[in-house]
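queue> holo job accepted (S-adenosylmethionine)
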Amino acid sequence: MSHWQNYPAQWNTVGPPLRTSPEVVSLMQDLTGHPLGRVLLLGVTPELADAFPRVLGVDKSPDMVRRVWPGDTAEKKAVVGDWLEIGEPSQSFAAVVGDGSLNNVAWPDEVSLLMRQALRLLRPGARFACRLFERPPDPLSWDDLAAAGTRPATVNFHAFKWQLAMRIAEDHGATLPVTAILHHFDRLFPDRDALSERTGWPRRAIDTIGVYRGSPLVYCFPNRAEFLSCIPPDAKDISFTACGTYDLAECCPVLSFASSR
Ligand SMILES: C[S@@+](CC[C@H](N)C(=O)[O-])C[C@H]1O[C@@H](n2cnc3c(N)ncnc32)[C@H](O)[C@@H]1O
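queue> job finished
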């Protein structure tokens, strides 16, 4: 079973930072100007599907479309497809939005391609807005990460998992196979019952990391400079907006830019 086939089953057990939050949704509505026209959603994030009146969701996982998308209506529809190959006409969307979408492709080539694709699809003056998982200038050290597993946790398990991924990305490059996250986690914490007892992370939450076993997926965790290097030169009015108070929110700004008028 593939990663995104396993993932829908876990959907209801995860929250921010893996999933979006109400403040982020409201920021994305504001940044994009509450568009009434068609919005392209990069994925099937239900909170973003609900945030706009006309939405086309695109996700390459049929299981995610079937199990996570809230359902087609007259004005909202999800299709199975690859963001890097969306064939919709240029300038046909009033906004392009996503939650973590840019982290789901490889940096730098696919991140650049996806941003160019978004810009192509935007109507003149319309905006792209996407929550990022952005590697901080100084990710936790390996010692910090190991120490976090010896005492009551200060962040939820999923936030910790991203802190670990950001360390790996700092050492080995922004793009990493998700199997590397599992590998380093198992190396640091071979005894999950003991980890659960010491940190207070429920064993059920810890075990969600098993979805990475044998997965062919790569994620990327670029830092600010690495994201900036991928933004097309003709993008206008670029902003990174901090938003939310959930665990790891400081690493999850919303990137936005506009197409030329
Ligand atoms: C949008 S991202 C991140 C999830 C997000 N935090 C959320 O709560 O919606 C995850 C989705 O991206 C999809 N995906 C990853 N790469 C893709 C691509 N190149 N084209 C289309 N869908 C893709 C996956 O199938 C998955 O459903």
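queue> Strands lie at 39-42, 55-59, 76-80, 93-99, 122-131, 175-177, 218-220, 236-241, 254-258.
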